[in-house]
Amino acid sequence: MTTKILGISGSLRRGSYNSALLRAATQLMPEGASLEVASIRGVPLYDGDVEAQGIPAIVNQLKEATVAADGVLLVTPEYNNSIPGVFKNTIDWMSRPAADSRRVFGGRRFAIIGASPGGFGTVLSQAAWLPVLRTLGAQLWTGGRLMVSRANTVFDEAGALKDATVEEALRQFLNGYVTFLRSAPPPA
Predict the structure, then answer these.
(1) Average pLDDT, the chain
(2) What count of other Cβ atoms lies within 10 Å of the Cβ of residue 6?
(3) For residues 72 and 63, what is the distance between their CA atoms, to the nearest angstrom?
(4) What is the pTM of this model?
């Protein structure tokens, strides 16, 4: 049986290092595992009045893809030492309505990676996700860390991963995460 992971990049920028990292991950998955890439493009700003008229289709698609996956890989940029607003907005939408939040997030197994042109990678953004995921009842895999720093030197002009050390670190992270998903009980 294939282990299915949903990967979500928290950037809208076409030349995003995080989207490039996610694309690279699709090529480095362990045998018997797959990584489906989802986009946050088109998710509106959260507005309770909009929610009262119904959850947007793009949000429902992301929620159902999350529920269908064995695990979710968040690939997060870091803006102003924290989570990018568009990414947090997407997760906020996915937690609505409140009665549906447990089905989408409760016990769901998440992992976080990220890339930044700065020298510290995405250490602060990844840390900022911890209380959010804890509040939603998600289970975060902490058996590995991947914070790609100086991302502008790691990818070529076309967005392909060109750094062998980062490639190996990504491969090891994915191997560890998939091993965790295969050994952990599925969400209730």
Answers:
(1) 96
(2) 22
(3) 11
(4) 0.96
Using the predicted structure, report yes or no on whether residue 186 has a pLDDT greater than 80: no
Compute the distance between CA of residue 18 and CA of residue 114 in angstroms, rounded to an integer: 6
Kindly report the CA angle at 38 between 65 and 46, in degrees rounded to 5?
Answer: 85
Sequence ranges of the domains in the chain: 3-183
Domain 3-183, CATH homologous superfamily name and number: Flavodoxin domain (3.40.50.360)
In the chain, pLDDT over 90 holds for what percent of residues? 97
Q: pLDDT tens digit string along 81-127?
A: 999 999 999 999 999 999 999 999 999 999 999 999 999 999 999 99
Q: What is the DSSP letter of 161?
A: B
Residue 150 gets the label, from left (phi > 0), alpha (psi -120 to 50) or beta, of left
Residue 188, both tokens: 């209730």
In DSSP terms, 147 is beta-bridged to: 114
